[in-house]
Amino acid sequence: MARTPTGAAVLQPEVTRAITDAVLHELAEQGYGRLSMEAVAKRAGVGKSALYRRWRSKHEMITAVVAEFSVQRADVEDTGSLRGDLRAMIQAVLDWLTHPLFSRVLPDLVAEGARNPELAESARTSIGGPRRDRAEVMLRRAIARGELPEDLDLEMALDVLAAPIYWRLVVRQAPAGPDYLDRLVEYALRALGS
Questions:
Q1: The domain 68-192: what is its CATH number?
Q2: For residue range 23-34, what is the model confidence (pLDDT) as tens digits?
Q3: Which of 80, 102, 150, 152 is the most exposed place for a label (fewest CB within 10 A)?
Q4: Which of 21, 24, 20 is nearest to 109 (CA)?
Q5: Cβ-based burial of 135 (10 A; exposed 0-12, middle 13-18, buried ≥19)
């Protein structure tokens, strides 16, 4: 059995989970600008060094935690049909945007991103990019099954899929029940040329 070298930092998963939870709660309560490493460490019940062993800065910590939280919620199983995949994807977006903590975090991160180009770029590359990549896989499956045209404008299609639910929930702050989601799927299918 290999022994951990003396002095090596061993990152314990349960400590990382406690820190991640603390980051999300602090973001929801304090926002990006007022969040402090000290408050996160205190809430997680760890020293600040536990944070710095994982991330070099507050920005890196927040980006990593929000990306992990967000990207894992973009994974949707192949249902075998574009209609089923779209319904599952839109439900996953709804669940992500209405999560009790994340629904309080997102508006602050969007506003902060408008003031902080580094944060905006980090969000695009670590959250938006991977989430779009997963949705693109779904669209390419539909193209391969013959449900969508081969010349589909993927960039536009990805915008069309995410924008309505974001607009309704985050900007308008209107409800999005099952009937709305079903109607949205039908509109999306027509917009995609299915």
A1: 1.10.357.10
A2: 999 999 999 999
A3: 150
A4: 24
A5: buried
